[in-house]
Amino acid sequence: MIIFGTSSKTVQLAMLNLLCAFCGNPSAHALRKRITRFSLFFVPLFPVMPAKHHLQCTFCGAQSDVSKEDAQQLLAQGAGPGQQPGPVAQGQPQPPAGGNPYAAQPQQGGPYGQGQHPYQ
């Protein structure tokens, strides 16, 4: 008796900080690749389908398919395993040094006027 079939393996290529197209939150996205192989006696031998790439938002869980070229471009722009993050693209705001990039910016004067605060 011959036992054969297919097996799939998912490999995480990188974690990228992107703006989610579904929920609109800037969050980490897992870039993953799924490989389907023909197996004989439970031993994977050769791929039977092209690898499929997809992104998954860690905030809302939404998943979107990505082409191979787009996945390679995202890997080149973002940080791969053991690499330093690439430069920030022009036109994107730089986070404040040593602070939370999503925190509210201090206002001039504030709602209580210049130098006045109710708890001082």
For the CA atoms, what is the radius of gyration? 23 Å
Shape label: elongated
Note the run of SSEs as H and E.
EEEEEH
N-end to C-end Cα span: 84 Å
Helix run count? 1
Largest sheet: 5 strands, antiparallel
Counted beta strands: 5
> What structural class results from the helix and strand content?
mainly beta
Mean pLDDT: 77
**Helix coverage percent:** under 10%
Estimated share of beta-strand residues: 35-45%
Low-confidence stretches: 80-96
Signal peptide: 1-30
Region (Disordered): 70-120
Keywords: Signal
Protein name: Zinc-ribbon 15 domain-containing protein
Describe this structure as you would to a colleague.
Residues 70-120 are annotated as: Disordered. Residues 19-67 form the Zinc-ribbon domain. Residues 1-30 form the signal peptide. Pfam families: Zn_ribbon_15. Helix content is 8%, strand content 38%. It is mainly beta and 120 residues long. It has a domain at 4-77. Strands 1, 2, 3, 4 and 5 form a 5-stranded antiparallel beta sheet that branches. A hairpin with a 5-residue loop joins strand 4 and strand 5.
Give a concise summary.
This protein is mainly beta and 120 residues long.
Please describe the structure with a list of short key phrases separated by commas or semicolons.
5-stranded antiparallel beta sheet; 120 residues; 1 helix; mainly beta
